[in-house]
Amino acid sequence: MAELSKTAKSTTPQSGKSSNLISILAPVICLLAGYLIWRFVLGAASNFGVGAENGGFWPEREAPKTALSKMYLGGIIVPILIGSFLTMITFVVERFLTIQKAVGTSSNADFVRKVQFHLSSKNVDAAIAECDKQKGSVGNVMKAGLHRYKEMTNNSELTTDQKVMAIQKEVEEATALELPMLEKNLVFLSTIASIATLLGLLGTVLGMIRSFSALGEDSGGGAAASKLSVGISEALYNTALGIGTSAFAIIFYNIFTTKIDAITYGIDESGFTLTQSFASQYK
Predict the structure, then answer these.
(1) What is the residue range of 201's domain?
(2) What is the pTM of this model?
(3) How far is Cα 138 from Cα 127, in angstroms, rounded to an integer?
(4) 4 found inside a domain
């Protein structure tokens, strides 16, 4: 227990601070990058036939030369959507690396069977060595439980039920350290999945308002209708960006939650293995 506590105290705060720093800085940096891409890449003067002389925060541009440059004309919501997409990608990569590390080096089912084999031979040290090879969340929880398991085999003061409860409590404490790390930052994906479509619709509505306002000021008949259709096309880029970002966020959120559920099941199975093994062999 002392060994586990020292390890948790020495590593958990540092990893927690690093993860919190990513959570704070990533959305801000991605939103800033979204604006820079919108303003200086999509909105570069060379991409337009009219408005090259204009600068500033939101320069007016006309006559886009490429399909991507038309996205610039979608309005100020476009950089927010680009920033949301970049934020989603950032946390997808971050969660993928974290969960991949938490999965361990091999199948959790095979790992649990190996531990069961060693415990049936009362070789706790070999079982702990398997945990060192496996790593990941299941390996960490199993190792914590095995240290308490080994301690309980030499304890003559407690009853078998009390020893089993002590092992179970150790597993629960180790699990409480692992699960928050797995679920952290998933809230960003779920939030982006919810609001990206709404932001896209907001950008489309604002674009439609600008288009119809311009139509009301123009009495050119066919030319006005043509300008309206172009404006609507530009406004719909917001919807496309919002729906696309939301769809990707939902897909990856479901993938990660499925992987976390599998890891959680492995943790539960490891705890059950330890308590049942001890109860059957040290009555």
Answers:
(1) 25-281
(2) 0.85
(3) 13
(4) no
